[in-house]
Amino acid sequence: MSITAATPLAVAKPRRRARSSRQWQGLLYIAPAIVLVKIFFVIPVLFTVWMSFHNWPLLGEPSWIGLGNYTRMFSDTRFSAALSFTAYYTLIATIAIFALAFPLALFVQNERRGVSAYRTIFFMPVVVGLATASLLWVWLANVDSGLFSPILRMFGVTGRSANLLATFNNAFATIIVMVVWKIVGFTMIILLTGLQSIPGDLTEAARIDGASRWQRFRFLTLPLMRRTLALALILSVTGSVLAFDQFYIMTSGGPQNRMISVVYYIFNQSFVSFQLGYGSALSIVLLGILVALSIVQLWLLRVGDDK
Amino acid sequence: MSAATKQARARRKLFGGLGFHGFGVIASFFFLAPFFWAGLSSLRSGSEAQTPPLPPWPTNGISFDSYATLDSFGSGIWQHTLNSLLVSLSTVVLTVIVSLLAGYGFSRYRFPFKNVFFILIIATLMIPFQSILTPLFIILARLGLNNSLVGLTLVYVTLQLPFSVFMMRNAFDAVPREIEEAARIDGARDIKLLLRVLLPLVMPGVATVAIFAFLNAWNEFLAALILLSDNDKYTLPVLMTAVRAGRLGAINWGAVQAGVMVMTIPCLIIFLLLQRYYMRGLMAGAVK
Fold first, then answer.
1. B273 at the A interface (CB within 8 A)?
2. Cβ–Cβ gap A181/B257 under 8 Å
């Protein structure tokens, strides 16, 4: 008994030591990533919550004001204006992007000669920065040396000195066109992966059964694309809710400051008015909105799955 | 099949092809035109740059006036391009190193709280950095990293981590364990094993991580705007907003076009050369 029992014991000991040293190695490998995430992500997130309960000027001592920053929001009409402007922008931008991305995705789905070149070309604006695209388009839309006003004048759409960024509606339309140009290739590629995941023999079978092109699209393609559509929708909505660059660069907040998005408003509160506590409280609200939007969209996706 | 139907089918194919490529070419024009317009206009002479852009090409011969003018803003275009390059390339190098190690650790080792750590890193995706900029600004100040390109780089690396670690873990998961065991028997250990044996095998993953890190750092605007306060530290997008806003003198549209080109061309070159890796990353990000 003694020998047979002793042997496994003798073997087990060094193995356990080896395992724990391997454990340490694993932790060592991920340590740099964890340290970075802790300093530049976890601490800032917790700090945002802490700061949001304070009156926190850039210079001078912060003081605890409890929920003061949060109650202040309810009477802050400029914040509610920023909220409704962001909602309006998100709605219009998302509709515009999807309305164009879907036909483009169907177009580049064809396996024909030259189609990969089209895919590449439609995608090119995506890899350029939003700030870069905004600068490019603010020049195109500029009244004196830009491209659009002479063209619009040529077609008789506008008068001599139509400044595309001077009125709310014109500036808004210009920004939407810019964003669609910049983003649509991305949504197109996401939708394309969804389209390509639909088995070809399924559509073929439906065709043989006499389903029309529209019926195949409505009853086959759309339901099978549900997950992809939801993903593209979440990405598009989240991106729009966080919009900042285009409003800051193209219109500096727009005519009569009507183009202040939520992130722009937080930027103004924190880094122009230096009310860092209020800015943090607004950030928390923004975060809550984003989480709520994602949950709603995921929930809509689930409801569809049960049917 | 009769000759007539054959002919009809051929005709339909021809017109279908015409319709297809007709649409493709027109759509391509709309996507490409803004780039060409800015590129051509940036080559017009200084006096011409402030006039309406029809025709868009330089009528007085090609000139680099706009680029020279751009150089007179801030600390000179070279300085700001260098800032952008420095931040972007450091972000690439650090992101690759950190995510390579982390991806290896997550793929090959078992340790306590492994899943917690992994979820923590991935969670960075759920909370957009725009909502933590205010405290980030204060924390960087406390660390003495405010208004520094090093601080900005570390922030960018952190923003890249969820995608990059996920990507690298999957890359390591795809490498058969037998290769590693064979290398161990041959005497390769730890870092040497990782660099000599495994790195070449996960190179496509590294390329993907590097491209995304570069483009995101090169194009990022809001964090740079907030975290950099000295003119000579500005990255290109921050410099260009100052030029566009006329904060550095009257708005010079020729300089804006030239600046747009300086910011655009590296992105397009990288994308066109390394499309395969870029698309791979996009799919991995989308499917997740």
1. no
2. no
B10 in contact with A, Cβ within 8 Å: no
CB B80 within 8 A of CB B96: no
pLDDT higher than threshold 80 for residue A2:
no
- Contact between chains at B154 and A40 (C-beta distance less than 8 A): yes
Provide the mean pLDDT of chain A: 86
pLDDT at B19 over 70: yes
- Among the partner-chain residues A36, A131, A150, the one whose CB lies closest to the CB of B221 is A131
Question: Does B27 lie in the same domain as B88?
Answer: no
Q: Which residues contact A205 (CB under 8 A, 6 or more apart)?
A: none
Chain A contact present for B55, CB below 8 A: no
Question: Is the CB of residue A182 less than 8 Å from the CB of residue A208?
Answer: no
What is the number of domains present in chain A? 2
Domain extent, residue A58, equals: 15-64
Cβ under 8 Å to A: B residues 135-164: 135-139, 143, 154-155, 157-158, 161
Complex-level ipTM: 0.90
Chain A interface includes B77 (CB < 8 A): no
- E strand residue ranges, chain A: 54-55, 63-64
CA-to-CA dists, residue A127 to A167, A184, B210, B225, angstroms: 30, 12, 14, 20
Nearest chain A alpha carbon to B13: A112
Whether residue B263 contacts residue B236, with contact meaning beta carbons closer than 8 Å, is answered with: yes
Quick count: other Cβ atoms within 10 Å of Cβ B244?
A: 25
Instruction: Report the Cα B134 to chain-centroid distance in Å.
Output: 24
- Closest CB to A145 among B52, B99, B134: B52
Verify that A22 and A126 share a domain, yes or no: no
State whether A26 and B259 contact (CB < 8 Å): no
Task: Please name the helix (run of DSSP H) or strand (run of DSSP E) that holds residue A283, with its range, or none.
Answer: helix A276-306
Mark whether B175 and B41 lie in a shared domain. no
Q: A223 at the B interface (CB within 8 A)?
A: no
Q: Is the pLDDT of residue B267 over 90?
A: yes
User: What is the percentage of chain B residues whose pLDDT exceeds 90?
Assistant: 52
Number of compact structural domains in chain B: 2
Taking the CA of residue B136 and the nearest CA in chain A, the distance in Å comes to 6
Report residue A146: phi and psi, to 5°. Answer: -85, 180
Domain extent, residue B33, equals 3-65
pLDDT value for A247 = 96
Same domain, A50 and A81: no
User: Which residue, chain included where needed, has tokens 């090169």?
Assistant: B218
Q: Do B127 and A181 touch (CB under 8 A)?
A: no
- Cβ contact, residue pair A51, B138, below 8 Å: yes
Please list every residue in chain A whose beta carbon sits closer than 8 Å to the beta carbon of residue B240: 131-132, 135
Would you state the pLDDT for residue A6? 42
Determine the pLDDT at residue B263: 96
pLDDT > 70 fraction of chain A, expressed in percent and rounded: 89
SS3 content of chain B, % helix, strand, coil (to 5): 80, 0, 20
Burial of B280 (0-12, 13-18, 19+ CB in 10 A): middle
How many C-beta atoms lie closer than 10 Å to residue A255's C-beta?
A: 16
